[in-house]
Amino acid sequence: FSPQVDAANTGRVLASDAAVFLKRSGLTDLVLGKIWDLADTDGKGILNKQEFFVALRLVACAQNGLDVSLSSLNLPVPPPRFTDTNSPLLLSATTSSDVPWAVKLEDKAKYDSIFDSLNPVNGLLSGDKVKPVLLNSKLPVDILGRVWELSDIDRDGMLDRDEFAVAMFLVYCALEKEPVPMSLPAALVPPSKRKPLSFPGAMPLIPSSAATKESHHQSLPPVGILAAKTPLTQ
Predict the structure, then answer these.
(1) At what angle do helices 127-135 and 161-175 cross, to 10 degrees?
(2) Is the dihedral angle over the CA atoms 31, 63, 174, 194 positive or is it negative?
(3) Which of 13, 134, 190, 198 could make an S-S bridge to 162, C-beta 3.0–4.6 Å?
(4) InterPro entries in the record, alphabetically (predicted)?
């Protein structure tokens, strides 16, 4: 065990210590909670060495876009990445400053026009304004919740122009039957957001009640029409 998570060398990791450590993976609280539930098989809030390795393996699965499930444990994945390099066990997260943004210029212009049509306030759109656009994609609510959580990079409950472009990019990927990743790949982080991120805690997801068919009288452009069938390549 790394002394970072087992300072007293007890061979066990408490939930509080593990939470601090696992947050360095950059995964959302929702995903980390699922990882903990699967790893803590007896539900005691403590991981032994084998259970902790299961948690690390699941972190690696999530970081590589695989489902967080026990069936993913046998799949080949690179080691998990953490934003702390003090321990030889850890690989530092690659800096993404020199990775080109996955959102192409012509697509960004399209997303910007949608963004402006939603009447942003001080360059920001609230969740209430973004939600109808996401729901118009007809994607499952759990997928849309992940899209929201990944695109709200600074966790302020609002999307700026670049964050909105990330959300739209992920929606179109999902419409093309590409899996929405469990954590935001380096290439998708907008250049304006490329700095060490803090993850103070996940914002609430789009509530499932949002899936109920509400009659929206304002004419919000449905995502399907906006796509105009221009397939996006990652």
Answers:
(1) 20
(2) positive
(3) 190
(4) EF-hand-dom_pair (IPR011992), EF_Hand_1_Ca_BS (IPR018247), EF_hand_dom (IPR002048), EH_dom (IPR000261)
What digits encode the pLDDT tens for the residues 122-168?
999 999 999 999 999 999 999 999 999 999 999 999 999 999 999 99
Report the distance separating Cα 33 and Cα 149, nearest Å: 14
Amino acid found at 220: L
Cα angle 126, 136, 62 (rounded to 5 degrees) comes to: 75
Q: What are phi and psi of 48, to 5 degrees?
A: -85, 180
Query: CA–CA separation, 57 vs 191, rounded Å?
Result: 29
Residues of the chain with pLDDT under 70: 1-10, 84-98, 195-234
* Structural tokens at position 72: 């993913």
Residue 108: both structure tokens together:
């960004």
Answer for the pair 58, 35: CB distance below 8 angstroms, yes or no.
yes
Q: For the chain, which domains are there?
A: 13-72 (1.10.238.10), 105-193 (1.10.238.10)
In sequence order, the 6+-apart residues with CB closer than 8 A to the CB of 87 are 2, 3, 4
**Encoding tokens for residue 174?**
């999902």
Contact between 47 and 18 (Cβ < 8 Å): yes
Angle at 184 between CA 179 and CA 188, to 5 degrees: 95
Residue from 194, 169, 191 nearest 180 by CA: 169
Q: What share of the chain is helix, strand, coil (3-state, %, to 5)?
A: 45, 5, 50
Note whether 48 and 12 are within 8 A (CB).
Answer: yes
Nearest to 218 by CA among 117, 122, 88: 117
